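Key idea: predict the complex, not the pieces.
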Amino acid sequence: MINFDSVSKQYKNSNTPALDDINLNIEQGDFVFLVGQSGSGKSSLLRLLLKEEKPTSGTVTVDGINVAKLPNRKVPAFRRTMGIVFQDFRLLPGKTVFDNVAFGMEVIGKSKKEIQQRIPALLDLVGLEEKAHRLPSELSGGEQQRVALARAFVNKPKLLLADEPTGNLDPSTSVGIMKLLDRINRTGTTIVMATHDVAIVDQMRKRIVQMENGKIIRDQERGMYGHTGQ
Amino acid sequence: MRFSFVSKEVGNGLRRNFTMTVALIVSVAVSLSLVGAALLMSAQVDRMKGYWYDKIEVSIFLCGNTSVAFTCTGTVTEEQRKNIETVLGSLESVQEIFYESSADAYAQFKEQFAGSAILANISPDALPESFRVKLDNPENFEKVAGSLQSVQGVESIQDQRQLLDRFFQILKGLQSFALAIALAMLTVTVLLVMNTVRVAAFARRRETSIMRSVGASNMSIRLPFILEAAVAAIIGSTLATAGILASKYWLIDAKLAPNLTFIPFVTWTEVLAIVPMLYLVGVGTTVLAASVTLRRYLKG
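Result:
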């Protein structure tokens, strides 16, 4: 599903590389935690997957596509194959829960009928069927992130990228979000989640890729945050 | 990208940016009115030229007994008159030749100034006899004048076009003035569009970044902004068109034409031909300015 082949990324105004000779393979259906301190290269790695940046050397392949060689006009179609969740939710403040989720379908030209059919089921999945007509400002942080998750999943992406999705949430709320991510993962969606939430990583017992100074220092199945496995 | 979704976005955008939208509409309306006025004036000049150039003649005045020109030796002789007519007949650009004797000229003069005191002081002798020549193209006056200047018996050659051209020059001056202001206003409009679109893009950067991350195409991200500018431009163009049509109906047809019957005014066909140009210029410039701005401020 995802393959990094000796990928390095050097930003223009920096002396040290953000990513230093990364080799990583993620299979379809995997659930991978990307852990490490701020500045360790997690975000750069996600940005390369989205083609927001190009690697300085090496190749990034997503679902058989060489991301760096993807022409700009094909980037939108490429991004439709993945869902993205951010730490700050990124909901549209003027739109209701329903409309926020529908937005993900509207911008890619889905019909009103398809939207009306799909969204109630999706809101049911994230447990917000009662709040479809609320505005984001009327929701708790956890509920907002559920809306964001619903939007990310609305077009049934093969890959879901989550950048610190629990970063702004308290531990009990975070558990709910993780359960949701786990459910989405079980539908066959590959999930790559950057985080430094120790408790969550330890609880989930999923594959862990730990980064430090642009290098992968640990890649472990069913790992725990604090245990380096040495 | 469904129509109702786009139109909803456009409506929201225009409402949120209300003051800028109004400024844009007014600016488009004013600049296009001036463009329209300039085009109207140019159509008017063309129409008058067509009408009057068709009627103008070159007058070749022949020597009278008081003439002092070096080609004159007293009143023109029968032989000289014949010679002049032959020269005229040999010129390619001459289409028709009329001869007007002093008596004919006096008769016309009497008719024109009937009841005026001038009449008492003029005798038929004071009015020179002349050839009135119609040219295939008034521009050929110089050629005709050149070949007649030194012919014996010709006192002077007068080009009626010169009188008209002075008038046309004034109209042309007005037209260039209107065009210059129109250009300045169009520049203002372009800058206003760029600024409006930039502000709108900045206000909606969150929406556009979300749209991008869910895979909306560049076109569908930019389309609402471009359509907003286009809608404002269409409203502005419509106002300008209304102004042009109103000035034809209430100014030209109702006020000018009945009083200035000797001037042929622009017809409705000519006025209506300007309308599509106004829309083209208005919507074209606006959409172009918006697209260029978006390319800079909404990175793909």
